[in-house]
Design a protein that fits this description.
The chain is mainly alpha-helical and 162 residues long. The chain is built from 5 helices and 2 strands, in the order H-H-H-E-E-H-H. Among the domains are: 37 residues; 75 residues, no CATH class.
Length: 162
């Protein structure tokens, strides 16, 4: 079919109203594939469907659970390496772990502040023992680090129960 300006304008108007391609082709009197060919050659007249859609997609609602939420178990990672009670700064050697054994918001005091003092990792770049190197950054995947933490927590629970 030879497309005339009137046929193109009518097809574009019907397309813009939201009619599908088969309906527009039937109204204009052409095959749907001819209309799709015209739409491909004239993208300014026939805007793609869904162009400029601003409607947000609905998200799934979380399932409603009756009763109070369970309280999560927050286990504190042990501050000290097992078997080491801390060393003052003046007695710390270059072969000992320099992990501080005071809180994040406490001030450093030379007289009272202690460091771990466990044997340091020799190949590592950090001035920490194996215990504190795993505690601060960890080795392996996040799941492996979580397993190490869980094992430490389980050992603490067994020690308390005994």
């Amino acid at each position: 079919m030879k497309w005339t300006a009137e046929n193109k304008a009518e097809a574009a108007r019907l397309w813009a109203t939201g009619m599908n391609g088969a309906e527009v082709a039937e109204a204009v009197g052409v095959e749907p594939r001819e209309l799709y060919g015209l739409a491909r050659r004239n993208p300014a007249l026939f805007r793609p469907r869904g162009h400029g859609r601003t409607r947000a997609r609905k998200t799934a609602e979380p399932p409603h659970v009756e009763g109070p939420a369970p309280r999560p178990f927050k286990a504190k990672f042990p501050d000290k390496a097992p078997g080491y009670n801390g060393v003052p700064h003046g007695r710390l050697t270059s072969c000992q772990c320099e992990f501080p054994l005071w809180g994040h918001h406490e001030e450093f005091d030379v007289a009272t502040s202690l460091f771990c003092g466990a044997p340091r990792i020799h190949e590592g770049r950090r001035p920490y023992c194996t215990f504190h190197a795993i505690a601060t950054a960890g080795t392996g995947t996040p799941g492996e680090r979580r397993a190490v933490r869980d094992a430490i927590i389980a050992n603490e629970r067994q020690a308390v129960a005994a």
